[in-house]
Each structure stands twice: as structure tokens, then as C-alpha cells.
Design brief:
flat; disordered N terminus; single chain; mainly beta; Invariant Chain, Chain I; 1109 residues; signal; disulfide bond; Green Fluorescent Protein
Length: 1109
């Protein structure tokens, strides 16, 4: 029987090869021309149904895939996909691409074979006839290589149906798809062949269980997650993902025959992406209708706008890492580079609206004959106007130079060519301002965020009017001298004298500015950071501003006057610097008919960085020094509206003879010898000093860049490898670039811009297992790095004695605050800092009502510490063998301490002094966080926000009787609290945005409140729950009986809040079996319901310890 099957297969193959050789590339693929399949060819059949996955198909020859060479098994799914490893249960139905596992997807969609709706066959075939046929297909796509496979995997989706969901689409009734994927492997390389027979794709969309509507299928490859220490999305290639492109698969080809697509998927050339074949169909096989042909042949280059999408699927020899290429609905897959463009090539862009749902591409038309059109991509690696014209403004012309191209605004427009606006037209600037400012000698900063900035510019007169609202009165008057905050906009649109350029002409409104203001006679300085992002879709310039530091106090009602001034701007490639000393007069509010005035001064220096077009040498010949003249300055703070206003009149031109700086100074002659990253500061006569620019250090003659952090270096490496030195440009699809905070450390929550997945990382950027969330949900990640300590008056790390009464204690990075309670009401005006520990990141808090002691977990060292509320110095009780201690709980009766460790995935117990440690649990934990005790009953409760299986568990305090208490309808259960009076266990969930409660002995649970922002930790007292919220940086009180928010407290320091606990004025009544004489135990006494267990600490060899129940 087997011989007969093999014989018939060989005959079939010879017949098909003969057809291929005689017929040439023309004509659609017929169903009978697919590789042989079915039970008669020893195929295995996938179990019928929806979202099925086969057992592992073991391979005799290793499959190579991207950079891997050792794949020994594959998995076949119902949904048009072959997986390189077993798909996780939550990814068996189609979702966002790419998946977390390696995948070959000839038609990724939600397919269905339930009740005989088609079949899925698969096998590995080593027969010479089949391997020979596969080799022929590969060599037609890659004629320059010699390839003979040893093993071929054939997967056939035969007449499969679309999954239609609850409401069936009548248009898809009876529609069936047939297609095939063939993976051919030799000892050195692997190839994929996709076959789509004529009329084999009768539907292009299926019902998505996630989106609950029809979504197109996807043809793609994915490397899956990569990385050894930490995981991130690897390379992936999407070749079709819209209706028209999918419908084109049977009519098009990249291998010379319609319906047959060949890809190199595993070799030295595919480490960074799959390589597509590149063989043209013959012109008579192109299926353009007359209208399409006319539109191609009748267009002239000047008639068409030219935009491009520079990220293409890789070709052999390419080095790009992250790539996406979408097949055009009307452009064939054969339209790929055949070689460098010739002199007969002219470039233009087909109209974008001819190709819906397609990223625009630059196309060359080789005019071989008037009646023949051949398409190819421009493969010249040098950026030219032909392939990069889209980077210029629509009001600019593009010019090619020897090393690249430059953009220049056309007559009547001004700018740098990338951004152009009409000359003399009024301009608007919109943005946001945030600040953290210490006013006068106040130790508490004034913090404001998301404050609006609007500016209006009259270009013809160089006048700028800037308004910032709403600025708190406590800082508004003190910001009046800072006209340069709005002055940067004045410089951008200053009136230009002949031969000189304002900021917009040089930068196009795309630059970053960092400035330092030092007030004479006042300690500290103010740092101003501004990022200008060019013109938005409304034609307005956009700006983000951040203010941080110290300013002198100016009393309410005072006015500030600033005399006209000049400022010299020094230009070098991509950098502009300036510095000056500026005086201002503060007039106090009138008293008894008189108003005192005082003159003050500040020193000002700034660095502006931008991207300059370096290919046009004539652009670099502009004056190295220009003078900004500000002829009038008006500043005002409107107390009623809380609006800060700056108005300035500006012009830019040469250094004038009457300027305080003479032209003979080396700073203006260019003979100063300062480092290119330094500013030349002119002195009297010919004297000068060199000062390194912001971000650099040195003596000015030699400057070196401030050492970058690991996160910054990783960002630069990835962006550089992708040719994305300008991080403001859109990222290529699939490219992950880590986000760093303002200090250069990894932001604890990292997200992938293309996929929407988010995950937690440690201080070294490594992904923490089990933290990856689906799109739309951000995991509650913790920063393990304490912020830099700002030099200033030191605060002793000692506890101030707590006043009588009950208090809420909550943690912010570097400190613990107390908030008194009167009944259940928060006495917000009496909130004060309890303890300053600026080098720590305190996460969990617990209170011992017996000794009046607060305990905390610190994830920066990491460590566990405590301090007495009677006053005194804090102490660290545990430093060793900790990963990321987060939740912490006290058994005040048994005198024990419990904590969770999400890095080591375990729960431990110790005595209150940190001795006698014992691991209670170290299995079935992924992200344990909140933990609480029920001391009276001897129970322990904890949360685990494991993204795949979030749960709340319980056990006895000795670790026995462990069980899942709550598992359904959880998202990110963070905080947990047990109210001893009502015997309720309550929690807050950042995924479901709910606060809920349950009585452990009863099955039902109660929703207390929905619509929470981003709750982290929770505690209970009286009739309220109190939780900390990450989004609002506040403590929120929720009424348990009335199910509503009662009150909110915003601390002075607007930073993230972590753990919260209640410091009770007295302990609750009651006892357990460990309350007296340590329960008769020699070491650990762990309470259980109605009893206790004596346990020994871990690693107690030779210690006289007795375990007993």
C-alpha cells in the first residue's frame, strides 16, 4: 500500500513539474496543482473544531527560522498558522500580531472546521518527489541559489469555513477557503512556500472574538519573544493585512507564478527578518484594468505628490531588524528591487488614494517601451529627493546633493524646508507646562501639571504674546521675571535683518532647549526644559515645557519690570548656545501711598539642539553669532484668572557696535579654541571663557558627554541600528525602544508601541516574568531605583513622635506620611511627614499596635525596615536573600512578620526583629503583592496579579490548608485589607477598576465601588476603606456602607503613592494560641484556627528547635 502511494505521488509530481516547465509562469494556480494531501498521502488530520492546536509534529531535519537553527517540532492550528512552539492557551485564537511565539501565517484568521466545515491536514514528507518539487519552487523564487531540501512540512487547510460569531453574515454563507503552506529545509537553510489556488480564497475576513466584528486575515511571519535575561518582541514581517491585499494573493506572486509565494525564513540572511522572493510576473500576466493602466501611463512626475514609507521587507543582504511590508491591492508582490536604478529611471509616486489601506511607497517606472510598464523599487541607499521627498514640507522644494538631499521653502514661505509657513502670517503655538518649583525658602515645592500654554505671534512685527494658565497664585508672581519661557517663541519668529535667520528659519520649530537660571544672591537654580515638535495637523506649533528648581519669592500684588535687552546666540552645527545677565525690577504693592522697588538680577544660559541639513554647504555659511534684540518686554500675572502673561518684541541681526560685547572678542571672531560642545563666554576686551554646554563636562577647551545610563545607551543603540537618530520620527512597526525616566533609568512599565503589550522591568531593564499585559491594560510595576537626592537642607531620618489618636500612614518614594483620623474623617490640614528616607523606595507598610512600630518593605536596596512611632532612628531588620519585597503584614498576637517577594516568587515569615526566617510558599506564585493577616483566627490572605491567572489565596498562618479564595473576574488585584471587626476581606483591583469585599466563610462577594482610577494599596478603618491611587496621586476614602467615594487627600508632594496602613490608637481585643508564652514553642509560633503550629526557621542545622502541632 505504501509503495503504491509513493508511486502515485511520484507520478503526480512528475506531471506537475512537466506542466510548470512547459507552461511557464502564466495562469492561476489550480487546486490539483497543490502539493498532494489527504489521508491517502499519510497526512495527519487536525481535530475538528474552533481554535484547535495539533500535538507537536516532530521533525527529522531541524527547521531554521529567523536566527534559530534548532527547531525540532512545529504545531499546526485551525486558524491558518504554524507555530514554532506550543501556543499559550490565551493565544490559540487570533489576536494582535505579533504573537509571543514564533509563527508562520499563510492566512491567519479565525477559521472553523466544526461539524465537517473543512479539514486541516499536515505531515512531514521526506520523499524525493516532494522534496524535488519544493526545491523547484524555491529556485524559481531565488534563481541565484542552489537549494535541495531534505525535509518538507506540508500543511493544507482544505475548504475551511470562517468563524462567524453570534450573528452570522449571510454573505459568508457557504464560503470556503483552501490554501497550503510548505516548509522546506536543508542542512543550511529553510524556505516557506505559500500556495493559493484559483478561487481558493472565497472570504478575506472573519469574525474576531476580541474586536467583535469582521477583521481581515493576515499573511505574516513572527520571530516571537526574544532575549535571554529579559524578553521583548522580536522581528516580524507582515506581507498582507487588508481585504484587497488578501484578495490579491491568488492573482499575484513573488516567484513568477500566480498564487505561489516563496520566502527565505531561516539562514544567515534572515537573522533580522524574512526575505521575500523577487521574480517578476510576465507583463501579460499583470491583471491591471484599462483605467489603472491609463492612470499609470498618463501621469507626469510633477503631477503627483511624493510620499514614501521607508520601512520595507528585507531583501537578501539587507540589515534592517524590524520590518513591515504590506502588499498593495493593485501592485503585485513582484514589484521589488531588481537592482540599482539606471539612467533611464525617473521616480514618481502613484497617488495614495489609488491604494487604500496601504502604506505609500516610492516607485520607479522604467520606460523600456511606451507600451510596457515594469515596476521596481529604488534601491539606491543614498537618500534622494526621489525616495525621501515626503520629508520636505509641501511648501518646499527638494534638491539633491552629493551626500543626500535638502529641503528649502519656496518663495513666499519661511522655515527650514521640513517645516514651512507663509511669510508674515500670524502663528499660534500650543502646548503643556508642568512645574515643580520651590519658592523662596519654602521646603515644599509648588507642583502643577497639564497646564495650558498658548502663544500668538505677529510675524511682521516680531511680537509674541504668551499666556500660561492656570498657575497657582503661590508661584505665579515669582515666575514673572522668567520672560525667556515665552521668549524662545519670540526668538523663533523674530524679525530677520538681511543675511540673518530667526529660530524658525533654522530649526523649523523642531528642537529641544534646556536653560539654567541662577538668581544672584539666591541659593539654587531653575532648570527650564522645552521640546518643540513642529507643526501639528491643525497648523499650530506644539511645545512641551518643564520647570524645576528654585525661584526667589515675589509677594502677591507686586509688579515686575524688565528693560529692553540684547542677547547673543552662538551657532555651530546642530547646536545653538547663549548666555547673559539680566536685571529686573520688583515693585512691592503700595502701602501708605508708597511702593518700594528693588533691582535684582539673574544669570541665564541655554543650549538649543536641532537637526540641520548638512548636505548643502551653503547653509553652513550663516553667521556664527547673531544678536537677538528684545525691544520691549511686558510681564503680568492675573491673580483672578491665574494666568501668567509674557509679551515681547524681537528682531535678529548682527552684533551691534553699541552692544556690551565688542566685535574684536575671540568669541565673535571664531578664534577662541573652545570645544565644539562648549559655549564661548565673552569678557572685557579680548578676554573670554569656555563653558561646556548642558549635558557635557570639562574645562571648556575639552568637553566630554556626561556618562549615559544603561537605558539611554540601549535606546541609542536600537535607534542607531534602525537609522532613527531622531527619536521624534515615527518608529518602524515592530521596533521596541525602551523608555527612560528623567534621570536616565528604565521606566518600570515598558510598553511596545506597535503591539500595545506592556510589562514590568527591573532596574537593568529585564522583563519580569508574568507581568506582560494585554493591550489597553498597564501592569502595576514598581520602580526599584530611588530618585537622585537633591542637595539642600538635610532632613534627619528620624521619626517624630506620633500624636494621640488613629492615623493613616502612607508611603511615597523616600518617605512615610501620616494623616490623622477623626472618626472616619481625614484631617487633611494636619497631614505631615512621619519619616524621611530619601534613598529608599518604600512599597509595603504594616503597623504593630502593641509596640507602636511601623514596618516597611524597600525594593531599592532591597530590605525590610522598621521604626518606632514614639520617635527615634529607623532600623533595617532584613537585608539578605530578598528580591523584590512588596506586601508586608504583622501578626500582632503571635509577634510575627509576613511578606511577599515578587522577584523570588515566595511568601516568608519571621519574628518581628527579622530573625527566624522561614519560607511558607515558593510554588504557584507569579506576582504576589498584597498580604494581610487575620490574627484572631490564624488565617493569612494574599493577592497574586499573575497576568495569566490573577487570584486571591488564603491559608493558615503555618502555611497549611492553602486554597484559592477568589479567581473569577479579576484583573490586577493589588491591595488587600482585612477588617477584624466586620470579618471582611476587601481588595482593590487596577485591572477591573473596582473595590470589592468578601467574607471568607461565605461564597458571595460584594462590589463596593466601580470606576476607580488606578488603585494600588488599601486599608480599612471604621466605616471606610482608604486606598492610594497611582493616577491621581491621592488617598481616597470610600464608604463601605454607602458604596461611594467620601473624600480625597492630595499630598503636597505630587508623586506616586504606594502602601497604606492604619496606625490604631489601641489594639483590637482578642487573642490567639500564640499570644501567651509564644504558644509554648521554642521558635516560630504560627497560629491556626483554634490552635497553633510550632515551626523551626529555615537553615537551623544544629539549633535546638522542636516542631509540633
Amino acid at each position: 500500500m505504501w509503495a503504491a502511494v509513493r508511486g502515485s505521488g511520484a507520478a503526480w509530481t512528475r506531471a506537475l513539474l512537466l506542466q510548470l516547465l512547459l507552461a511557464g509562469p502564466g495562469g492561476c494556480l489550480r487546486r490539483q496543482e497543490l502539493f498532494p494531501f489527504g489521508h491517502g498521502h499519510q497526512d495527519l488530520e487536525l481535530e475538528p473544531g474552533d481554535d484547535r492546536v495539533s500535538p507537536a509534529l516532530e521533525l527529522s531535519t531541524a527547521l531554521r527560522f529567523f536566527d534559530k537553527s534548532d527547531i525540532r517540532s512545529v504545531y499546526v492550528t485551525t486558524n491558518g498558522l504554524i507555530a514554532m512552539s506550543e501556543p499559550p492557551a490565551e493565544e490559540t485564537h487570533p489576536g494582535l500580531f505579533p504573537p509571543t511565539f514564533g509563527a508562520v501565517a499563510p492566512f491567519l484568521a479565525d477559521l472553523d472546521t466544526t461539524g465537517g466545515l473543512g479539514k486541516v491536514y499536515y505531515r512531514e514528507d521526506l520523499s524525493p518527489s516532494v522534496t524535488q518539487l519544493a526545491g523547484e519552487y524555491v529556485q524559481r523564487g531565488f534563481p541565484e541559489i542552489s537549494f535541495q531540501p531534505r525535509s518538507v512540512v506540508i500543511v493544507t487547510w482544505d475548504s475551511v469555513a470562517p468563524y462567524q460569531g453570534p450573528s452570522k453574515d449571510p454573505a459568508q454563507e457557504g464560503k470556503r477557503n483552501t490554501f497550503q503552506a510548505v516548509l522546506a529545509s536543508s542542512d543550511s537553510s529553510s524556505y516557506a512556500i505559500f500556495l493559493y489556488p484559483e478561487d481558493g480564497l472565497q472570504f478575506t475576513t472573519t469574525f474576531s472574538k476580541k474586536d467583535e466584528n469582521q477583521v481581515p486575515a493576515v499573511v505574516a511571519f513572527s520571530q516571537g519573544l526574544v532575549g535571554f535575561l529579559w524578553k521583548s518582541d522580536g522581528a516580524f514581517n507582515i506581507f498582507a493585512n487588508d481585504r484587497e491585499s488578501i484578495g490579491n494573493l491568488a492573482k499575484s506572486s513573488n516567484s513568477g507564478q500566480q498564487g505561489i509565494w516563496v520566502f527565505e525564513i531561516g539562514s544567515l540572511a534572515t537573522a533580522s527578518g524574512v526575505v521575500s522572493a523577487d521574480v517578476n510576473l510576465r507583463p501579460d500576466d499583470e491583471e491591471y484594468d484599462d483605467e489603472d493602466y491609463d492612470s499609470v501611463t498618463s501621469l507626469a512626475p510633477e503631477d503627483v505628490r511624493t510620499t514614501s514609507f521607508p520601512y520595507e521587507a528585507p531583501r537578501r543582504g539587507d540589515t534592517g531588524t524590524y520590518d513591515m511590508h504590506v502588499l498593495s491591492p493593485r501592485r503585485r508582490g513582484t514589484e521589488r528591487p531588481a537592482g540599482p536604478s539606471t539612467e533611464r529611471t525617473r521616480s514618481f509616486q502613484l497617488p495614495v488614494d489609488r491604494f487604500p489601506q496601504q502604506q505609500p511607497q516610492v516607485i520607479d517606472v522604467d520606460e523600456v517601451e511606451e507600451t510596457e510598464v515594469v515596476f521596481s523599487y529604488n534601491t539606491d541607499s543614498r537618500p534622494t529627493c526621489a525616495n525621501s521627498r515626503h520629508q520636505c514640507s509641501v511648501h518646499a522644494e527638494c534638491r539633491d546633493f552629493a551626500t543626500g538631499f535638502c529641503c528649502s521653502c519656496v518663495a513666499g514661505y519661511t522655515g527650514n524646508g521640513r517645516q514651512c509657513v507663509a511669510e508674515g502670517s500670524p502663528q499660534r503655538v500650543n502646548g503643556k507646562v508642568k512645574g515643580r518649583i520651590f519658592v523662596g525658602n519654602s521646603p515644599v515645592p509648588i507642583v502643577f501639571e497639564n497646564t495650558d500654554l498658548h502663544s500668538y505671534v505677529v510675524m511682521n512685527h516680531g511680537r509674541s504674546y504668551t499666556a500660561i494658565s492656570t498657575i497657582p497664585e503661590t508661584v505665579g508672581y515669582s515666575l514673572l521675571p522668567l520672560a525667556p519661557v515665552g521668549g524662545i517663541i519670540g526668538w523663533m519668529f523674530a524679525v530677520e535683518q538681511d543675511g540673518f535667520k530667526n529660530g524658525f528659519s533654522i530649526t523649523g520649530g523642531e528642537f529641544t532647549r534646556q536653560a539654567e537660571v541662577t538668581f544672584v544672591g539666591h541659593p539654587g537654580k531653575l532648570v527650564i526644559k522645552q521640546r518643540f515638535s513642529g507643526i501639528d495637523e491643525h497648523g499650530h506649533l506644539t511645545i512641551d515645557t518643564e520647570l524645576e528648581g528654585h525661584v526667589p519669592h515675589i509677594p502677591v500684588g507686586a509688579s515686575v519690570h524688565i528693560e529692553p535687552y540684547t542677547e547673543l546666540y552662538h551657532y555651530s552645527r546642530n547646536v545653538i548656545t547663549s548666555s547673559s545677565t539680566r536685571e529686573y525690577t520688583v515693585t512691592q504693592p503700595e502701602r501708605d501711598g508708597t511702593a518700594a522697588s528693588n533691582v535684582h538680577a539673574y544669570q541665564w544660559r541655554q543650549t538649543i539642539t536641532f537637526q540641520e541639513c548638512v548636505h548643502d554647504d551653503s547653509r553652513l555659511a550663516q553667521p556664527s553669532t547673531q544678536q537677538l534684540s528684545v525691544d520691549s518686554v511686558f510681564v503680568l500675572y492675573n491673580q483672578e484668572e491665574r494666568i501668567l502673561r509674557y509679551a515681547l518684541s524681537n528682531s535678529i541681526g548682527p552684533v551691534r557696535d553699541g552692544s556690551p560685547d565688542a566685535l574684536q572678542n575671540p568669541c565673535y571672531l571664531g578664534t577662541h579654541g573652545c570645544d565644539t560642545n562648549a559655549a564661548c563666554r565673552p569678557g572685557p576686551g579680548t578676554q573670554f571663557t569656555c563653558e561646556c554646554s548642558i549635558g557635557f563636562r570639562g574645562d571648556g577647551r575639552t568637553c566630554y558627554e556626561v556618562e549615559k545610563t544603561r537605558c539611554q545607551l540601549e535606546r541609542e543603540h536600537i535607534l542607531g541600528a534602525a537609522g532613527m537618530a531622531d527619536s521624534q520620527r515615527p518608529l518602524p512597526p515592530g521596533l521596541f525602544v525602551p523608555e527612560c525616566d528623567e534621570h536616565g533609568y528604565y521606566v518600570p512599565t515598558q510598553c511596545h508601541g506597535s503591539t500595545g503589550y506592556c510589562w514590568c522591568v527591573d532596574r537593568d531593564g529585564r522583563e519580569l516574568e508574568g507581568t506582560r499585559t494585554r493591550p489597553g491594560m498597564r501592569p502595576p510595576c514598581l520602580s526599584t531605583v530611588a530618585p537622585p537626592i537633591h542637595h539642600g537642607p538635610s532632613v534627619p531620618p528620624a521619626v517624630l513622635p506620633l500624636p494621640p489618636g488613629s492615623h493613616l500612614l502612607f508611603a511615597q518614594t523616600g518617605k512615610i506620611e501620616r494623616l490623622p483620623l477623626e472618626g472616619s474623617t481625614m484631617k487633611k490640614t494636619e497631614a505631615k511627614a512621619l519619616l524621611h528616607v530619601p534613598d529608599k523606595v518604600i512599597v509595603g507598610l504594616a503597623f504593630d499596635c502593641v509596640d507602636k512600630m511601623v514596618y516597611w518593605t524597600d525594593i531599592s536596596e532591597p530590605s525590610i525596615g522598621r521604626a518606632s512611632l514614639h520617635g527615634g532612628e529607623p532600623t533595617t531588620i532584613i537585608r539578605q536573600d530578598l528580591g523584590s519585597p512588596e506586601g508586608i503584614a504583622v501578626d500582632h498576637l503571635g509577634r510575627n512578620l509576613f511578606w511577599t517577594d515578587s522577584r523570588l516568587d515566595r511568601i516568608e515569615v519571621a519574628k518581628l526583629d527579622g530573625t527566624q526566617r522561614r519560607v511558607l510558599f515558593e510554588t504557584d506564585l507569579v506576582n504576589p503583592r498584597g498580604i494581610v493577616t487575620d490574627s484572631l483566627r490564624g488565617n493569612l490572605y494574599w493577592t497574586d496579579w499573575n497576568r495569566d491567572n490573577p487570584k486571591i489565596e488564603t491559608s493558615y498562618m503555618d502555611g497549611t490548608h492553602r486554597r484559592v479564595l477568589v479567581q473569577d473576574d479579576l484583573g490586577l488585584p493589588n491591595g488587600l485589607t482585612f477588617d477584624i471587626y466586620s470579618s471582611q476581606l476587601c481588595w482593590v483591583d487596577a485591572g477591573t477598576s473596582r473595590a470589592e469585599c468578601v467574607k471568607p466563610g461565605q461564597p458571595s462577594r460584594r462590589r463596593v465601588l466601580e470606576g476607580l482610577q488606578y488603585p494600588f494599596a488599601v486599608t480599612s478603618f471604621g466605616k471606610n476603606l482608604y486606598y492610594t491611587d497611582w493616577k491621581t496621586n491621592s488617598v481616597v476614602a470610600v464608604g463601605l456602607a454607602v458604596n461611594k467615594e467620601m473624600d480625597t487627600f492630595h499630598p503636597h508632594k505630587q508623586s506616586r503613592l504606594y502602601g497604606i496602613t492604619t496606625a490604631l490608637s489601641q489594639c483590637p481585643p482578642g487573642h490567639n494560641y500564640c499570644s501567651v508564652n509564644n504558644g509554648g514553642c521554642t521558635h516560630l509560633c504560627l497560629a491556626t484556627p483554634g490552635s497553633r503550629t510550632c515551626r523551626c526557621p529555615d537553615n537551623t542545622l544544629g539549633v535546638d528547635c522542636i516542631e509540633q502541632k
